[in-house]
Design brief:
Blueprint (H helix, E strand, L loop, with lengths): L1 H18 L5 H42 L2 E2 H7 L5 H10 L2 E3 L7 E4 L10 E4 L2 E4 L4 H10 L7 H8 L4 H9 L3 E6 L2 E6 L2 H15 L4 H4 L7 H13 L3 H15 L3 H9 L3 H13 L25
Antiparallel strand pairs: 1-3, 2-3, 4-5, 6-7
Helix pairs in contact: 1-2, 11-12, 11-13, 12-13
């Protein structure tokens, strides 16, 4: 189009140099308007071409400097281009969107440094080499040793995963089975799911006596009764920490198993385990400040 404009412009200028004195006033006006329009189109085309080159270079430079950015930050930096233009340029640079924070943040694949599980975080914003949260949850469950419960996968991904796992199970991309009254999510491939199912059963068949009882010949039911009696003598904080300690001994799947054994919520067991690992322990309080029921004032009958 720019070449056509140049040809038209040269033709008009040549026509002007030969016949400008022979043209009537009306012809001169039409000629000048046509020439001005031709210059305007050529100028607009040059701006468009320059802006496209500037956009992709500016996005790459901006992301390399800030590591992660939001869409609004990109839009403001680039002078408010169209939404489709930004995503078209991002696609050329192989971008990633965060699976945390509702996909609000963007980075480049060349910037992210993924760990063993294929995850990377920057300033508490999490990215995955698998893509969004749904694809990441499916990939991690498929590659796990014994599947994941929602609580276990939450500890790995640092975001809530319950609704995503349910969605994957309903769509047939994952399998879901109850183990000790807790749902465990397995791979959608039957061969992999069978292997994960056997590994999960091995965890569950571990004798409860091995938790606190030295004698391995003690029956599992007797060991369970002993543990429950011991836990009944502990306060709320001590029970939580004890459950977290036993979960650490079991390793993968420990939260769900201990929660089922002691009749506790898996999130409570996970909290106790995290408190032990972070050494965030206080000796003078059972609960955190402000926790527990609000004090109730007894109403007195007015005389």
């Amino acid at each position: 189009m720019r070449a056509n404009c140049r040809i038209l412009k040269r033709s008009l200028l040549g026509h002007c140099s030969r016949k400008i004195y022979n043209m009537n006033p009306f012809g001169n006006l039409v000629f000048l308007r046509t020439l001005a329009l031709t210059n305007l189109v050529e100028w607009a085309n040059s701006l468009i071409m320059n802006k496209a080159r500037y956009t992709i270079q500016a996005i790459e430079k901006f992301l390399e400097h800030h590591k992660i950015v939001t869409f609004d930050q990109l839009k403001t930096t680039l002078g408010n281009p169209a939404r489709c233009t930004i995503f078209r340029k991002l696609a050329e640079l192989e971008y990633l969107s965060s699976y945390s924070h509702r996909g609000k943040y963007y980075t480049l694949r060349s910037i992210a440094h993924f760990g063993v599980l294929g995850l990377w975080n920057y300033r508490s914003v999490w990215f995955s080499r698998f893509g969004n949260l749904i694809d990441t949850a499916e990939a991690l469950v498929h590659g796990s040793e014994a599947g994941y419960t929602a609580a276990e996968l939450k500890d790995v991904l640092h975001v809530k995963t319950k609704h995503v796992l349910i969605q994957l199970a309903r769509s047939g991309r994952l399998q879901r089975e109850p183990f000790d009254s807790v749902y465990v999510y397995l791979s959608g491939e039957n061969q992999v799911a069978d292997r994960q199912r056997r590994a999960r059963n091995v965890h569950l068949r571990r004798s409860s006596a091995s938790l606190i009882v030295v004698n391995p010949d003690l029956a599992a039911e007797e060991a369970k009764a002993t543990i429950l009696l011991f836990c009944s003598m502990l306060n709320e904080r001590q029970r939580r920490l004890y459950a977290g300690l036993e979960s650490l001994k079991l390793g993968h799947g420990g939260d769900a198993h201990i929660a089922s054994l002691l009749g506790m919520d898996p999130h409570t067991v996970a909290r106790g385990r995290q408190e032990l690992m972070s050494e965030d322990l206080t000796h003078d309080r059972v609960r955190a400040a402000g926790a527990g029921r609000l004090p109730q004032e007894k109403k007195r009958r007015k005389s």
